[in-house]
Amino acid sequence: MPTTTRTLRPASKVLPEHARVVHRAMVLQQLFHGGPGSRADLARSTGLTRVTISDLVGELLAEGLVAELGQAHEEGKVGKRGTLVGLRTEAFRIVAVDLRDDELLHGALLDLSGAVVDQRSARFTEPRGEAALADLTAFCRALVGAATRPVLGVGVGSPGIIDAGGNVLEAPNRDWYDLPLAARLTEALGVPVHVANDADTAALGEFTFGGASGAGLLVLTVGQGVGAGIVVDGALVSGHGHAAGELGHVTAVDERDDDGPLGPPLPCACGRTGCLETVLALPALRRRVAGLDPTSADAALASVGRRLGIVLAPVVSALNLAEVVLSGPPELLGGPLRDAALAAIRERTMPVTSRGLQLRVTTLGEAAPLSGAAVLVLSGQLGVT
Prior knowledge:
This protein has helices at residues 19-34, 39-46, 50-63, 129-146, 181-189, 198-209, 277-280, 282-289, 294-319, 330-333, 336-347, 351-354, 367-382; strands spanning 37-38, 66-71, 83-87, 93-98, 104-110, 116-123, 151-158, 161-162, 168-171, 176-179, 193-197, 216-222, 226-232, 235-236, 323-327, 358-361. It is of the alpha/beta class. β9 (168-171) and β10 (176-179) form a beta hairpin.
């Protein structure tokens, strides 16, 4: 089971009428992060009364979410020993889907610990509009059908600006606008579906399963487009219009760069020209290195990395980030691109803000956004982050 020791800071106050839901989530969160414990242990760790804990554990036992695991071994203690209670991580499945790729849908079945049980991919017949939605629905239906345990829910990491209800406000690369994606999929699949921006889900995956710090984390996802998920002081940053982290549509190349290594500014799916994703998104990176010898390919990737560093420098300074994680193919994002980006950040920021900054490729590999999509379900259905 992956080690998970960090939790997101709550973003809102707890109202009295929500107390039971919050208390239930506290118990599940403690079992998720801390492993099995007795009812007395749970009372101590959560600060809830033993009566409340007993009531909640009875409810969770009835739902099959937890199980009694026998008596606890307590060294040197005499008298009756408590009965251990543990999360039944193998009893349910989570369906996770990642839509970053410009050609393929990526999906997985995971257990409640975040361990991947099955992983699949499928090719889009058409990666835009209603055809893409039909492909996604069929792909999710196949994953739900492949589950050999009850499905707790489906988590989808999608490009674009997405509100808290799982509505895609705009995703130019998919040609989705004002699409109630979570509601459409829930109706089609018959299970709860949670949808969030793919970069935000990748940040959740790094924060929960990838060992990343929540003090100041930016996860940059590179796929069909480019986006960023940001966690600062243990809270996911969404912004007033749900558009925090839209770095892919920051102008990175302008008319002054016509004779530079990146060439003239190119049109972007958002309708503007010279956006970062016109040089950093996977299709652009693949075109840039196609047919080049290794030395020339390294130089081409370094030129993109330098421009990325120029875009990231003010973000690193404004938020005093501790870590920037690149999520995408390591053969393109690691090495020259990563090194050039870090050098450009350090050239353009005060040492006090960039000293100790880590800029690395994700250690979770392709599972990073899928792990984050699973966290959407754990949070939405169980209150676990």
